Structures are given as C-alpha cells and as structure tokens.
Amino acid sequence: MERDPKARISHVLFWCTLFGVAFGYIEGAVVVYLRGLLYPEGFGLPLEDIPARLLRVELVREAATLLLLWAFARLAVTGGLRRFAVFAFCFGVWDLVYYLTLKLWLDWPTSILDWDVLFLIPVPWLAPVLAPVLVSLALVAAAVVLLRVPGLPVRPVDWIVEVTAGILILASFFTSVPTLAAGEAPRDYPWALFLVGWVGGIAWFAVRAFRSRAVRPPDP
Predict the structure, then answer these.
(1) What's the structural domain count of the chain?
(2) Within a domain: 83
C-alpha cells in the first residue's frame, strides 16, 4: 500500500530533523575543541592568529559541511525544489543545534547579541548570534511549507526576490570584514540592511505561499 503523501513528508522531516540535530551537535563539538585550543581564556573578537595549516583544515571542513548537507538532501527526496527545501531545513536545524551545543558546553553565547564568526569562506562572515538564528528559523519554516504544499508554483521573479534578499543578508555579514582585518572588534551591525533582506524575503514567500494555497483546489 502506498504511503499517504502527508505521512511520507512527516517521515522525511523526522529523519531530516534527526540528521540536523546529530550533525549540529558534531559541528558544535568541533568548535568546542577549537576554542579550547585557540581561546582557552574564552572566545572573543578580534580573532587570534590561526596557524595557516589549521586555517586550511578549517576552510575545507566548512566546505565539506555544506557538501554533506547537500548530499543528504539529494538522497532524501527527488526534485530540485524539494531537495533545496530539505537542504534549507537541515541547514537551519544544524545551525540552531550548533548554538545550543555551544551554550550547553561553553555557556556561550552569554547574549544573543554576542558577535560570532559564521563562516570563513571566502572571508569571515561576522554578525551577532541573533542574525544567523533568525535566518535559520526562517529557513526551517519555509522548508516545511515547501515540503508540505506539493506543487507550489515558483516563478523566476520569486527566485530573483529571494536571492536578492539573501544577498542583502550576506552583505550585512561582510560589512565588518575591514574592521576585523584591521585587528579591531566589530561594534555596529547593520541591522537595517539585515532586516530589509530578512523581512522582505519572508514577506514575499508568505504572500506567494498564501495565494498559491488559496487558489489550489481542495484535497479530495
């Protein structure tokens, strides 16, 4: 007997959640080790000088992390949009559990406004912890909608708007790179730039999903 589509999606989300939680804990554990080696007095900005060999290892590890998340999405479902949704869901869960792991073992961050280095590829991404947490929550919510509403139409303009929103968010992460390069700790985060991208992307997605849902025929 063929499984009910809703039950099948719930099954996929269960295993995606399990994968994201496990991988997020592994990621957090790795950073616990790194901070123990590089920041025995506690993590803070500006960054300490990282040995070149260790930096190369870290860059490859970050790339491998993204590759593993995408590989899981490729295996979990079929279809480009559904795979993207699984990737976004796992990425969001992974990132949220990562911060929970750091809080559990290091009692860090002490505040959601503490600055963090999100990625190092191709340059350091810098933001208060609240920013990536908000992004991850949005990714998880949007992914659930995409997976639970099959056949949701996605137009080229939708991709243009969402990619633009993503670029604005990424731009907010890069504004403090010159400050960090000068050996100084960043102070001001461009919340206005971030919120334009974050709120704009969510608002556009929500309106498109609601309208698409409203015009769909009822399930038999």
Answers:
(1) 1
(2) yes
Other CB atoms within 10 A of residue 145 CB: 17
Query: Could you tell me the residue range of the domain that residue 210 belongs to?
Result: 5-215
User: Mapping DSSP to helix (H, G, I), strand (E, B) and coil, where does residue 190 land?
Assistant: coil
Token code pair at residue 73 = 């999405």
Please give the model's pTM, rounded to 2 decimal places. Answer: 0.90
d(CA 102, CA 97): 9
Phi, psi (rounded to 5 degrees) for 186: -65, 150
Q: Are 69 and 91 in contact (CB under 8 A)?
A: yes
Angle, vertex CA 157, rays to CA 152 and CA 158, nearest 5: 40
- At 74-132, the pLDDT tens digits run 999 988 899 999 999 999 999 999 999 999 999 999 999 999 999 999 899 999 999 99
- Three-class secondary structure of residue 155 per DSSP: coil
Residue type, 199: V
3-state class (DSSP) for residue 168 = helix
User: Domain for residue 181, yes or no?
Assistant: yes
d(CA 200, CA 161): 8
